């Protein structure tokens, strides 16, 4: 019980202990993505002049970060929706299982977040609620009979609430044939009630004059991410299709009745880059959510993948995972048009700001001096922590991390605490105090892409010598592979990893960062399987300690941790 209360306070609303000064000024242009790094499947809701956005988190805990903005361009993480172990069981899950696509909605003073827990038993769809979006959020209300992934909640103006999601028809007509179901939801008893209807059947559009422009079977597969909206007496049903890669696309349908029949927009899809060259900077646009801002203007948030370098222009080599982008919409006609001032249906990198006062933050530099009594909401674990293996109070002003037998490549909760890598060119450093007692023990910095794809830069022991070593694990290897190592006598040192796309440098300092020495630079992993890793997620950078299968009573102390873009 004590442990649970401890974890509850860890991810309760924490005061931000990083410097992010708020500046209000006039609006100019903004650059996509609006939330960089691993932030896929965005969903957004509005409460007067405040906007809240959530993204998917898969095997990471806490789940579903919640971001706040007043200008739609600058977003600050104010908490996490699934911040208690009692809300989220990620035990034993494979990477890219866990929490898929959340949807956030606000109705009459209450925030609702619905999502799917994939791969766990019992899993399925559940809803949590809060009156303060920064938390605390309720325990899950599991919805019996809700199938598929990507559930949506829609609050109609007659007071009825509808839930929708995806399902595979009994006799699929083509590869990944998915349809969308909708049913009324009783939010007093958390039960689906009344008849279930099929909102959209992908098979209806596989013909010569289908309303999804240019589509073939190949592009219509994997209908997902459904949302329902109402505007001027029409119900609008939106969804994405073509999978979350190169063919990703977003389309819209409408009807006078919630249960249809729905007619397609003749210009569907209204957002895609699937006809772009495969080496495009921005690709895979889709999984979108529409919203109103200001005085009834419309916008859209959606996921993108970015590619930074010509030799990484292959579909799975996107280094930051899937990110969140924004576009404005012209909905003065019958159908919405994304980016009316740019090329229709495109994600523009540079766009005019929405006409809202800007509230900017410094997102380029982030540091934690561990003076706070609770972990900052950006700090993330891999899977659900089940014991208190870290502490901010063992030594005031430091984060101590216990060495435990758990290792990064296992489907466990290792002693890793990290934050998202948000930039392709970044630098991360930490001050660490640690003495490995035997050849099983190590602690240092880790860049985690998934359990079989990571970089480990740790102080360890070989024979009776303390060494500093960098290793890489690639998704096709059974073991870590040594990049470089060097004997070192210090037990207090500064570690730094600098990354530029898939090229890394490992540095250290034994005198407080006045001189940095290089363990190894120009380590280019572009041609290794390190880059083909995460299916749905993106990289985290953080601190790690392990006794690699053995019991240990040792710990590592971190005095500070810094992250910056360069
Ligand atoms: C998500 C689906 C998708 O559930 O990827 O890009 C899946 N879209 O809608 C995992 O994020």
Written overview of the protein:
The protein is an all-beta fold and about 575 residues long. The chain folds into 2 domains: about 350 residues, Glycosyl hydrolase domain, family 43 (Tachylectin-2, Chain A); about 200 residues, Jelly Rolls, CATH 2.60.120.200. Helices cover about 0% and strands about 45% of the residues. It is built from 2 helices and 41 strands. The N terminus is likely disordered. The site of (Z)-L-Arabinonhydroximo-1,4-lactone has 14 residues, from strand 8, strand 16 and strand 21.
Give a brief outline of the structure:
The chain is mostly beta strands. The chain has 2 domains: 22-360, Tachylectin-2, Chain A, CATH 2.115.10.20; 365-564, Jelly Rolls (Sandwich).
> CATH homologous superfamily of the largest domain, by name?
Glycosyl hydrolase domain, family 43
Uncertain stretches of 5 or more adjacent residues: 1-21
Distance between the termini: 44 Å
Apparent shape: globular
Jot down its keywords.
566 residues, mainly beta, Tachylectin-2, Chain A, Jelly Rolls, 2 domains, 2% helix
List the helices and strands and how they pair.
Blueprint: H1 2-10, E1 23-25, E2 29-31, E3 43-47, E4 50-54, E5 60-61, E6 63-69, E7 76-82, E8 98-107, E9 110-118, E10 124-130, E11 141-142, E12 152-155, E13 161-167, E14 179-186, E15 191-201, H2 217-220, E16 224-231, E17 234-241, E18 249-255, E19 263-264, E20 271-272, E21 282-293, E22 297-306, E23 322-330, E24 337-338, E25 350-352, E26 358-360, E27 365-368, E28 381-382, E29 390-391, E30 399-402, E31 415-420, E32 425-433, E33 442-450, E34 453-462, E35 465-473, E36 481-487, E37 492-500, E38 503-509, E39 517-524, E40 540-546, E41 555-565
Antiparallel strand pairs: 1-26, 2-25, 3-4, 4-6, 5-28, 6-7, 8-9, 9-10, 10-11, 12-13, 13-14, 14-15, 16-17, 17-18, 18-19, 18-20, 21-22, 22-23, 23-24, 27-41, 29-30, 30-41, 31-40, 32-37, 32-41, 33-34, 33-40, 34-35, 35-36, 37-38, 38-39
The structure holds (Z)-L-Arabinonhydroximo-1,4-lactone.
The site of (Z)-L-Arabinonhydroximo-1,4-lactone has 14 residues, from β8, β16 and β21.
